[in-house]
Amino acid sequence: MADLTSILHRLDRDARDGDDWGEVARYIPELAEVNPAQFAISVALADGRLLEAGDCDVPFSVQSITKVFTLAIALGRSGDQLWTRVGREPSGRAFNSIVQLEQEDGRPRNPFINAGAIVTTDEVLGRRQPREALGEIISFVRAAAGSEDIFINDAVAASETAYGHRNFALAHFLASRDNLRNTPEKVLGTYFHHCALEMTTGQLAMAGRFLVDGPAMPQLVSPRRIRRLNALMLTCGHYDGSGDFAYRVGIPGKSGVGGGILAIVPGQASIAVWSPGLNRYGNSHKGTEALARLTTRMNWTIF
Amino acid sequence: MADLTSILHRLDRDARDGDDWGEVARYIPELAEVNPAQFAISVALADGRLLEAGDCDVPFSVQSITKVFTLAIALGRSGDQLWTRVGREPSGRAFNSIVQLEQEDGRPRNPFINAGAIVTTDEVLGRRQPREALGEIISFVRAAAGSEDIFINDAVAASETAYGHRNFALAHFLASRDNLRNTPEKVLGTYFHHCALEMTTGQLAMAGRFLVDGPAMPQLVSPRRIRRLNALMLTCGHYDGSGDFAYRVGIPGKSGVGGGILAIVPGQASIAVWSPGLNRYGNSHKGTEALARLTTRMNWTIF
Amino acid sequence: MADLTSILHRLDRDARDGDDWGEVARYIPELAEVNPAQFAISVALADGRLLEAGDCDVPFSVQSITKVFTLAIALGRSGDQLWTRVGREPSGRAFNSIVQLEQEDGRPRNPFINAGAIVTTDEVLGRRQPREALGEIISFVRAAAGSEDIFINDAVAASETAYGHRNFALAHFLASRDNLRNTPEKVLGTYFHHCALEMTTGQLAMAGRFLVDGPAMPQLVSPRRIRRLNALMLTCGHYDGSGDFAYRVGIPGKSGVGGGILAIVPGQASIAVWSPGLNRYGNSHKGTEALARLTTRMNWTIF
Amino acid sequence: MADLTSILHRLDRDARDGDDWGEVARYIPELAEVNPAQFAISVALADGRLLEAGDCDVPFSVQSITKVFTLAIALGRSGDQLWTRVGREPSGRAFNSIVQLEQEDGRPRNPFINAGAIVTTDEVLGRRQPREALGEIISFVRAAAGSEDIFINDAVAASETAYGHRNFALAHFLASRDNLRNTPEKVLGTYFHHCALEMTTGQLAMAGRFLVDGPAMPQLVSPRRIRRLNALMLTCGHYDGSGDFAYRVGIPGKSGVGGGILAIVPGQASIAVWSPGLNRYGNSHKGTEALARLTTRMNWTIF
Questions:
Q1: Which of A53, A126, A202, C198 is the most exposed place for a label (fewest CB within 10 A)?
Q2: Residues A172 and A118 placed together within one structural domain of the fold
């Protein structure tokens, strides 16, 4: 694995070479003010080792990547019942589109677009208070990562709430189609908070190990569910750029608007990459490039 | 005018003949519980007379018909500036569609679909409190109708708020595109209340006289603006059934989901009809039929 | 009427004053090569007189304005049966959009968008050969105009055919939904030819007189149908700019991509205006402006 | 492998047990008249063996499955240049939708929806005659299958042409956006013929081996391209049911409206299944079920 270590350092150097870091998300000040010229990559291997390069000690806002964890929890609570409320198909639309929601009568296309994740959060919430549900989500993430040092950034959650009109529109639309059990305010309070979780790439790579079916990995969900979560990440994990990610990177992944990507090599590795500048699909620009090179070099592909 | 009186009574008898009253709106209990087998028609003539037939003493929820009054007030306050925030084109969509709003980047197609009327209400509100803006709206309607006996039904307004997720979705979407100056809660509080105004057909026909350019009519807006309001009512006043209404009835009109329609014969008459059962476009079924017959019999057409 | 004559000459001078003539249509060479800096206006009055100003002796390609004549013929042949195949609602879309056709299952929104006019042409065609149908259309136009000196420009028709992929797409889509009786090739052959009719504004204003219900006018359709054709022109005659035209000009009209507009003052006048540069809706830029001023000055409005 | 053989026979028996065979495609008589109560499955293993069960000797119309072969040929001819003309994203729409084509300005979302496959066929055609291009396609398929006994059914191709208005609409639309180099007639002539190829499941499973990267397999494309073709099959191979197929079956696959599915277990097997009745996405109903069971039993998944 000296080889993988040197590949990671090479990816880090290459990332810092080019000038085009992409554009950071601008919709809340906490994301808009992040310096785009940062890069980190961490790989948690099936044998238990964690290899890293770059700005690995900088916590970042994981944002939509938490949708993987909340989906796992929602499936644990409700099983296949969840699929009566949300679909499993790629959307062919932007992450926050409301058009499709109207056309498909209030059933979001998949759990990784915002509307779908709001439904998933409502399912995790159940009849509980947001505090309890958030407690379960954080506990799940910490258990997966094997670290207690993971927290929600309250300032980010507050900004998301203040600037979250589009998500309020989605939630009220879902409510108007009878696809929310709790009030939009309660669901979004929970949603904005779990999206505001912060982790380093090392913590995120460790947390992603529950999606790698291997003996040394935390057994938080069944092997069968692992496969299905990976299938959803592959087809729907990068919004309207999912097909391109599958074509070029070739493994399941889930991106967040904070510039992080969690990617899984089934049976072998959990990878976290972070660079805050985004490409036109809203996914990390340098992060995607680095993953494409890494999977090519390591011959890590599911195809 | 003995002739017109007898035509109105004939329309009333004919309306009660057929069994198909259409379906009343079901989204709030106050509308769902209205007996569909009711019909009233009132005509306020340029010479000052009011002729009526049917259930003319039953107040009903005018709902979207208030969009005409709030548009007149908004144009009075802001003039053509308003058109930077809302368009003047027929929508080709249902009254509460959010699809077009996303496709056209947050600028509603016209002031008579819900999204457009929410913007208009925001303009009427300005920097005032809802109470003040509602005071102006009620004063305008009462002055137009020449009657102080017109009130808001608070139970209807409360129900609209409780069941108004679709309108909250529209308002939050508008806010996300920077097309609201006040909070969604404040704008919708005002919107739901002015939609909850109740009038009899007699009061509504009288109130509509400000849209008839004639010497005996209340001069609340300029003749030029009257023409333009009538043009908008003709092209956009019946949602996705506006073309059909123009084709069959042939005069400007604005319908409400409570089953009322206000229609204008330029220079001659203001007509109010009411029958709570709706056709597939969400416009009064028997009311539309009666208007089509009335304009044919009286040769009242703008074409 | 010295007054009207001087107004027309003033409109002509004003049109030539401004630099912004708009953009001519570019999709076929015959239209792309027209000099945009031309303007003509003709008014045929109910008393039989024809008043004109500008380039009144220049024949231009009337294009979509023929949709009014073919609709009149189709209604004469089939009556209200036609409405099972085509709607009467504004489209809220561009003139050649195929999106709505798919969403509404092959029934065009109205007879004035391309898809609707293709259906209307199919209805006019019936079981006849294109030559016969075209003969009827030309005869109708010549009878309306009171002039035999009106012809089809074969070069324009040939170019439309050569560059007409979008219309072929529409026609094949209609066929796939069983809404064509003849082959796409046969219908479009007829369609492209009648759109290639050429007239001067004087001829067009004369031809439009059949839409003015008056004693000196050619009685080609019933008064009732006149009103309905006018209603359709008002709500649908300017594609996605119909609402704006109704608001600003205030009378029924139908535009063509060649820069012509036919507008009707019910009971009083038929107006033809021409200036080949188009605005963003694809309607004559200077022509629309001139009509707005003319109707304001003459107080010609239906509202 | 006795085990796999018995699993296949079990799948065949199970398929014949249930009554719900789904609906056969109805748009051309040749498909509409196929008996739905048929089932066949064949597996070509990396070690060279072919295991089968059911109606393995019945040739069926492979239809859209040829899109995989023509895509491989087009990429061989043009490389990544192809992606300037067609995308790589799931469509979220039906296989023959024209809506998205208009919204995305004539660039089909992916090569496996009809519009995309028409572009791919245009690329394979290049400047050649249809006969030459079809010759190359058949040669490729025969070489992949190791069988000369594979033919085009001319009656099917003729019916597709006769009933192919929707595809003509797509092709003309592409031409109107300058995304066809040949005429719609020429491209569709080629397209309809290669879709009319007939194979047994045994032949199709053998032909699919070029997508399995293994020593005993025909090396028709590079290992890198194999991976990318598999990625596209996974994200886009089942139209609007691609996400569901990935979730339930877990391997790349491409379906055809004739009821066939070609599915690939990377490095291990090429599977062909056939049952002509379709589910609501237009994919083989019993075929999909059988594949889901097979991959579960064999633990064949890429995730």
A1: A126
A2: yes
Say whether pLDDT at B94 is over 60: yes
Question: Using a CB-CB distance cutoff of 8 angstroms, which residues of chain C are in contact with residue B228?
Answer: 247, 303
Is residue B254 flagged as an active site residue?
no
pLDDT value at residue D287: 98
CB atoms within 10 A of CB B106: 17
Given B133, B162, B197, the domain boundary residue is: B197
Domain count, chain B: 2
D132 is in an annotated binding site: no
Residue B184 sits in the same domain as residue B86: yes
A 10 A CB-CB count for B288 gives: 26
Cβ burial, residue A48 (10 Å; 0-12/13-18/19+) = exposed
| Least CB–CB distance from B302: residue in C91, C240, C303 | C303
Report the alpha-carbon distance of residue B112 to residue B126 in Å, rounded. Answer: 19
Chain C interface disruption, residue of B71, B89, B110, B233, most C CBs within 10 A: B89
**CA triple D59-D62-D66, angle to 5 deg:** 135
Instruction: Give yes or no for a contact between D34 and D22, defined as CB atoms under 8 angstroms apart.
Output: no
Q: Is D290 exposed, middle or buried (0-12, 13-18, 19+ CB in 10 A)?
A: buried
Residue C247 annotated as binding site: no
Query: Beta-carbon neighbour count of residue C281 at 10 Å?
Result: 19
Confidence band, pLDDT 50/70/90 cuts, at residue D214: confident
**pLDDT surpasses 80 at B2:** no
Asked whether residue B176 falls in the same domain as residue B253, the answer is no
pLDDT in tens, D121-168: 999 999 999 999 999 999 999 999 999 999 999 999 999 999 999 999
pTM: 0.94
Answer yes or no: do A258 and A208 share one domain: yes
Q: Whole-angstrom Cα distance, residue A10 to residue C279? A: 55
- Do C183 and C232 share a structural domain? no
Range C182-212 burial, b when 16+ CB lie within 10 A, else e: bebebbbbbbbbbbbbbbbbbbbbbbbbbbb
Q: How far is A49 from chain B (nearest CA, A)?
A: 45
Question: From chain D, which residues contact C within 8 Å (Cβ)?
Answer: 97-99, 102-103, 165-166, 168-170, 172-173, 175-176, 184
Would B22 be classed as within a structural domain?
A: yes
Please tell me whether residues C228 and C149 are part of one structural domain: no
For range D179-185, the mean pLDDT: 97
Does A303 map to a domain?
A: no
Q: Please, are residues B58 and B64 in contact by the beta-carbon 8 Å criterion?
A: no
Interchain proximity D303–A110, CB inside 8 Å: no
Average pLDDT over residues B268-277: 98
Catalytic-residue membership of B239? yes
The pLDDT of residue D255 is: 97
Q: How far is C95 from chain B (nearest CA, A)?
A: 13
* Domain carrying residue A234: 2-63+198-298
* CATH for C87: 3.40.710.10
Same domain, C246 and C236: yes
- Say whether pLDDT at B93 is over 80: no
Does residue D113 lie in a domain region? Answer: yes
Do D252 and D293 lie in one domain? The reply is yes
CB-CB neighbors (< 8 A) of C109 in chain B: 92
pLDDT at A254: 98
Q: Please, where are the H alpha helices in D81-177?
A: 99-103, 114-125, 130-145, 154-162, 165-176
Is B284 among the catalytic positions? no
Q: Taking CB atoms and an 8 Å cutoff, what residues of chain D touch C99? A: 98-99, 102-103
The minimal CB distance from D166 to the residues C103, C173, C184 is found for C173
- A303 and D228 within 8 Å at the Cβ level: the answer is yes
A39 Cβ contact partners less than 8 Å away, ≥ 6 residues apart? A12, A15, A16, A54, A55, A273, A274, A275, A286, A287, A290
Using the 3D structure, point to which of C197, C231, C264 is the last residue of a domain: C197
Q: For residue D41, which of D243, D297, D283, D272 has the smallest C-alpha distance? A: D272
